[in-house]
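Discrete fold record:
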Amino acid sequence: MGFKGTHPSASVSVISSASGSKHGGGSGSHRRGSSDPATEPSGGAPSKKSSPPVATKKLGQKWVRNFRRRASATRLVESAFNESGSVDLLPQGQGREEKEIKIPLDITNVEAMEAASIDIKERIREKGSITACESAEILQEKMRILMTVWAHFPGAMSSEDVLEGYKKVVERRGDTPENTLFAQSICPDEVNHEEGDITDIFSKYCGECFHMGGLAGIPFTGKVGFGAFSHHVPDGDGHCAVLMAPHIGIDDKGRFGSYLREGQSHSGSCCGAAVGAYVHCRSGKPIPDLSVDPEFYQFNYIINRIHNRMDEIVGETECAKQASLSRFMHQIGTELLSKCVNTNFGGDKSTLVVLTGIQINMPRPFCDFFLPLDFYIMKKDGTREDVFDEAFGPKAAEQNYCRPCM
């Protein structure tokens, strides 16, 4: 399989055997931390260190670093980038047919290659071999998932990239895990709190975590919860940091609002509270009184908010409506959060850092994505410093990495 051409799109040339032979043999797993496929010789023959494709040079060192880090997870790419920027899945020989599949050669391929490599590795374990065309089909399937995500959430990125942007901003200003207390307002759904999710990596970086969120990530602990949290900050000029986000699932069929959970045979709603409230309003059922049934308060609150602004949830397709619903849930969450937070804590130089967005629960084996939407620092006088561009680039120039396959 070869990446050919230049950015933004390139052909993935899939080499398959005319006799139907399968790729076996040297397709073992490639562990993280082992030698980089981008520097290994192909077929056992000595070779000089190759250069990355022309397209990667245009995308910068970060792209190349991410590609090498993620692609090295398995032996999906069995031999290195050669001088022409191609990678063969089959050894050199005769009797091969070439099938060309057009895939954009841009940053989407980094995540697609990582997810595809895991599935290819599992299939090799199960069957002992896999053809180049089967590998290409898996890669295309992952690309379609990514294209769907970026079509509706341009600017979505990996949780690791979000943390890097966050650290870049706060550490320049002297905020550290030692002088900052962290809180998150995230839906308690278990799919939001798995290893590698944004909740996990932020908690590991920041240390202790105060939980402000209820259903759909809305900060239902309110002013009392924030007051308790903010008075736990370190002495002196201690800081507070809050991460708030609703979430939306996407299943392996590319359907938003659905998620195939581990151990289940079919997809279920995700976020269940948001989807359930939306379905309740669409069906014309009575809108519950918030003063009744306190045990259903959080769900009934969401129903009431959606009912009052149903006209803001729009879309030509069900996927588009679900994406719009998640953005509306973000509005609900940020509106309540803004009523709860303050800087009545710490010393004269204490600040409140707020990062909000949408957590996107990706189908396995993808890692979850996150769409940052607001990032600001509130100072003691109540003024806000918008640091979104500093962390993630110009918001007005949100890049949609989803380019259609040619």
In short: The CA atoms of residues 52 and 306 lie 50 Å apart. Residues 1-65, 67-108, 399-406 have pLDDT under 50 and may be disordered.
